[in-house]
């Protein structure tokens, strides 16, 4: 659609995952850097943390709080958020 702006950004993500107590619990730390090339290389940075618990052979419960360090107006950036859920692992 020629009336819409192009989306042109880079996302760099690293993750440090740590199992605890015989793999019954885990933590994850994940910094995300965004570069918006449509805004002359404007940057943003989010930090995400996850803690989870194994609930049997296939189910996992987790909570994931996150905070934006800088960069309002960059695609993918935010001030803060929290997610929680249950995963099924095949």
Question: Secondary-structure blueprint of this entry?
Answer:
Elements: E1 9-13, E2 16-20, E3 25-36, E4 42-54, E5 59-70, E6 80-88
Q: Rg from C-alpha positions?
A: 17 Å
Mean pLDDT: 92
Specify the biggest β-sheet: 6 strands, antiparallel
The poorly predicted ranges are none
Shape: elongated
What is the share of helical residues?
under 10%
How many H/I helical runs?
0
Distance between the termini: 39 Å
The helix/strand series, from N terminus to C terminus, equals: EEEEEE
Strand content: over 45%
Total beta strands = 6
Helix and strand content put the structural class at mainly beta
Explain this structure:
By secondary structure, the chain is mostly beta strands. Helices cover 0% and strands 62% of the residues. Strands 1, 2, 3, 4, 5 and 6 form a six-stranded antiparallel β-sheet that branches. A hairpin with a 4-residue loop joins strand 4 (42-54) and strand 5. It is elongated, with a radius of gyration of 17 Å. 9% of the residues are buried.
Q: Would you kindly provide a brief summary of this structure?
A:
The protein is 0% helix and 62% strand. The protein is mostly beta strands and 90 residues long. The termini are far apart.
Main attributes of the structure:
90 residues; single chain; mainly beta; elongated; six-stranded antiparallel beta sheet
């Amino acid at each position: 659609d020629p009336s819409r702006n192009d989306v042109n950004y880079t996302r760099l993500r690293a993750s440090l995952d740590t199992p605890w107590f015989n793999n019954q619990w885990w933590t994850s730390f994940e910094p995300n850097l965004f570069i918006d090339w449509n805004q002359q290389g404007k940057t943003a940075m989010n930090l995400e943390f996850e803690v989870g618990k194994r609930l049997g052979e296939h189910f996992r419960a987790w909570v994931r709080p996150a905070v934006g360090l800088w960069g309002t107006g960059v695609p993918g950036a935010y001030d803060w958020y929290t997610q929680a859920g249950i995963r099924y692992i095949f």
